[in-house]
Amino acid sequence: MKTEKVENSAVLLKGSISRLERTRRSHDFVLTKIQQQQIGLTALATAAAGIGSAGMGLINMAGNSDEEADWVEFELEGKQLEGWLWLMPMRNGDKVEVVAKQIRQNHYLAYAVKRDSDDLLAVYPHATSGRKIHYRSSIKIWLWCTLILNLVTATLFVLPKGLSTLLDFDMQIFLLSGTIFLSLISAIIAFRVSQTLMGFVRIAEMIFKTFGWSDIESIDLRKTSIENRIENKLPNFGIFYFRYK
After folding, report:
1. 8 A C-beta contact, residue 117 and residue 89
2. Which domain holds residue 140?
3. Which of the 8 DSSP states describes residue 144?
4. Are residues 105 and 216 in the same domain?
5. Closest CA to 47 of 36, 58, 37
6. 76 domain-assigned
7. Are residues 116 and 218 located together in one domain of the fold?
8. Quick one: residue 60, left, alpha or beta (phi over 0 = left, psi -120 to 50 = alpha)?
């Protein structure tokens, strides 16, 4: 992903926001040029193997992964901060805690902003869960995609000739071989995508650790936001900004 290497050099800043400027911009947070090439090669291999829809999805991902987020600039007790946040619900005068890294004298790069009054949390795009949640989600998505892919493939081969073809030994061997092959291909795709997104997991865990939260590998901001929705019914809550208690 297009961020600097994540190290344990983040600091927790506290104070009231002032001189806030927020701009909605389009930016590629996911892929570097090298990763785009890697995803593109996987897409071509997938298409060549006959998995057209998966291949097309990866080609689109490699070609255009821009998305919208808030570029924010503000002051906090005399310190200058800037950075990308998925959605910034805070305003001037809000008392907050900010996870940031110093980039030069009195100037910081912000990765997360948490409001004291209601625990609302704005974070760097996609930095929403620890590695245990990430791996669990990746495996779940892989299993579902593999199941659907194999069911569709088997249906396309069996229905034209009737269900009786399932009793044919050659067809059973063919379907079993196809299931193994498609499962391996989808596993390779899932692994590549999962590794591509690991940069966000490392940023998320850096944020959680700097806030002083425990069991950071198991934190899922989407889940905690649902559990602590309170009166917030806005559609972006729990998707682009969060709450953690």
Report:
1. no
2. 131-196
3. H
4. yes
5. 58
6. yes
7. yes
8. alpha
CA-to-CA distance for 210 and 218, rounded, in angstroms? 15
Whole-model pTM: value is 0.75
**Per-position pLDDT tens, the chain of length 245:** 343 444 558 999 999 999 999 999 988 877 544 344 444 444 444 444 444 444 444 445 444 567 889 999 999 999 999 999 999 999 999 999 999 999 989 999 999 999 999 999 999 999 999 999 999 988 888 888 888 878 887 787 777 777 777 677 777 787 788 788 888 888 887 788 788 788 899 999 999 999 999 999 999 999 999 888 877 678 889 999 999 87
Indicate the residue type of 167. Answer: L
Q: Clarify whether residues 77 and 154 are in a common domain.
A: no
Q: Please check whether residue 60 lies inside any domain of the structure.
A: no
Task: Tell me how far apart the alpha carbons of residues 47 and 236 are, in angstroms, rounded to a whole number.
Answer: 35
User: Are residues 70 and 190 both part of a single domain?
Assistant: no
